[in-house]
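Study this protein:
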Amino acid sequence: MRSHGWLRSFVLLIGVASALSQLVAPSAGQTAFLGFDRNDYPGDDRLTELRKTFDYTGYWLNSPPGAKANTWVGKRNAVQAAGFGFLVLFNGRLYSELKTVNNATRLAQADAQSAASAAQREGFPNATIIFLDQEQGGRMLPEQKAYIYAWVDGVSKSGFRAGVYCSGIGAKEETGNSIIIITAEDIRQSAGDRNITYWVTNDACPPAPGCVASRHPPLSSLSGIEFAAVWQFAQSPRRKDVAASCRGYSSDGNCYPPGSGARNHLHVDLNTATSSDPSHGRRPE
C-alpha cells in the first residue's frame, strides 16, 4: 500500500470471516485449481516436480517488479509441454511514473502494444487474458485509472483479453471519513462496460488459509471479492503486517511447495482459480 498527497497512510483491515470455511473443499459443482507464480523462472528441470502440485503458473511478458531482466522469455513451450496452464502477466507502471492523466494514457497505450507484441512473440493465442500487474493499492488516483483503462482498451483492441492483478484487501483512508477502499472494487466500479478479469491478492488469515498447497484449494470468491477469477492467498516472503498469523510458511518467511522447494530455495506465491488455465493461454497440442 502507498500514500500520495491527500491519500495518507493506509491501515490494513482484515475482514471478519470464518477461517474454517476457507479450508473446506469446494462444494459440489464448484471447482478450484491451485497454481503458483514467482518472478524468476524456476528452471526446466523443476517443472515436472512442480506440476505434481500445481495446475498453472504465472508467466511474465516483461521484467517483473524490481527485476532488470525477464527470465521467462522463450519458456512458453516448455511450460505447456510440462502440463501447465498460464497466468500471463505484464508489469505496469508505478504512480511516480505517470505524472499526468495525459501522460499516463500515452504510456498505457504504448505498454498495451508492448504487452500484445510480447504475447505474440511468446506464442500465446488470440484471446489470451493478459493481467496488468497493479502493485500499488488503495483508492486509485486519476492518473492510475487513466493508465489502467487505457491499457485495458489497448490490449482488448489487439485481440487479447485484459485482466488486472490488484489488492483485494480493505484499506482505511485516514481522511476523517473512515471509508474502506478495496482496490479491486474501486477499479471495477469505474471501469464502465470494459470486460476485465480480476486476479486479487489477499494473504491475510482469514480469509487466506496460509502457505497451504492443497489439491483442494479454496474458491477464489472466498477471497472477499466475489467476482475474482483468481486469488493469490500466499506470498513470498510472508508480509508481517498482514500475514503474521498465517500458518505453513518456512522459518525464513517464505512459502515453499512440497518436495525439494525449500532445499532449492524455490519460494512461490500461491493462487487459486476457477480454471486450470486462467489466462486461457494454452495452444492445442
User: Anything to note?
Assistant: The CA atoms of residues 131 and 233 lie 17 Å apart. The radius of gyration is 18 Å. The longest helix spans residues 101-122. Confidence is low (pLDDT under 50) at residues 1-28.
